[in-house]
Amino acid sequence: MFDLNSFSLKGENAIITGGAAGLGEYYTKAMLTVGANVQVVSLSDKNWDKMQAFADQKPGNIYFLKQDVTANDAPQKIVQEALNNFGRIDILVNNAGMQLRNKWQDFKDEDWHKVINLNLNAVYYLSHAVAKEMAKQHSGKIINIGSMQSYRAGKFIFPYTASKHGVVGLTKAYADALAPENIQVNAIAPGYINTPMIKALQEDPARSKEILNHIPAGHWADPAELMGVVVFLASAASNYITGTTIPVDGGYLLR
Prior knowledge:
By secondary structure, the chain is α/β, with parallel strands linked by helices. Helices cover 41% and strands 15% of the residues. The chain has one domain: Rossmann fold (3-Layer(aba) Sandwich).
């Protein structure tokens, strides 16, 4: 039966990588607000005090783990920490990511590997480890984070573009493979959101004007405008949705 409880995450347990800063901060806040317990995985302890103070005012509990998600043993450590704190894992948000900009001829091999390892390889390996636990309970939600570059080119950020195209493909593959286990796998493709990652674009008068003219909504998104969709994909309200990527872009892809 459908009611408002279909959107509740009360008592659900989530892992969110990069969940204390950038867009990840808002995914974490959204989950806590509707009752989920959240294991934040961060490379540093930046913003942890701020996130703890927020969680203290919400129904959900928050835990922190300082961990490089690209390390070989990261998936096992992250899963074990979550199991120690929660006993089970219901939701995984693969949010941690990075972007490096350069002319194609100046990109270093190590920069290619750095972006692919974080934005794509870490998503694959952590999803694999978490899915094994979700399969035991025959339920779970995996939410990956794509980008407008999941659909478009990016001549100065092509490792990022390649990784975000890959995230969409990985989302589809995992969704197909895990459907028999009652695990839904979907992705969010944020548009041009007002975060530090797009600061360079905002400070370029010509590029900023070009982007804004391309967005029917007419403005850069506030990060809070992504909070509803992550709750929806994590909740029972989306149980019959899997393998899809939802753009949250103010209509950017329409033009």
